[in-house]
Amino acid sequence: VLTQSPGTLSLSPGQRATLSCRASQTVSNNYLAWYQQKPGQAPRLLIYASSSRATGIPDRFSGSGSGTDFTLTISRLEPEDFAVYYCQQYDSFWLTFGGGTKVEIK
Amino acid sequence: EVRLVQSGAGVKKPGESLKISCKGSGYNFAEYFIAWLRQKPGKGLELMGIIYPGDSETRYRPAFQGQVTISADKSITTAYLQWRGLKASDSAMYYCARLREERRLQSSLDYWGQGTLLTVSS
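Structure tokens for the assembled complex are given below, as produced in the milestone run.
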């Protein structure tokens, strides 16, 4: 089980966002990904293998962590970054997702 | 350019059948797993199952085993998700997505279809 916190993060453009994802069991090989989903759109892969940015993802997005605790950081929020973020483990075949963190404009 | 294009939204009655599609292009379709995922309104993402188009090896998440059928036709680079006997609780957005690494099950999802909205209502 992946537990994301907080459920909602209210921030202003330009601020730093720190999102947490905690796994109930160790995620081996750092097989942890992060996705962004905007209303009416499919999710978009941001980070894989805990800290590798996917193709075309700006460097204001960074991932870190290992074992059971992982973090997605957005260094300076841009207007287009307000969305829901999901973590996902792929250590187990049953790819599972966290419940999501909504980053909203304060 | 890698693309996954899904079939359009559908409105169905309980008990009816439906097959939705996901057409891949811009890559070797046979060599990458395709996942099907469900997202109910305002909720998170659930994996339903995965197929390897190269040999049609399919795995279902237990909650979806027997409820849906996943298939693929590599000759036309298309994957399918099928229901026989729809229920109102099947109403959701359905996404197909490609697993990022060739021939690997343990992989993130790098390309997604645009989604197919299914409404089941009498």
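Residues 17 and 84 of chain B are 4 Å apart (CA to CA). Chain B has a mean pLDDT of 96. Further analysis is deferred to the final report.
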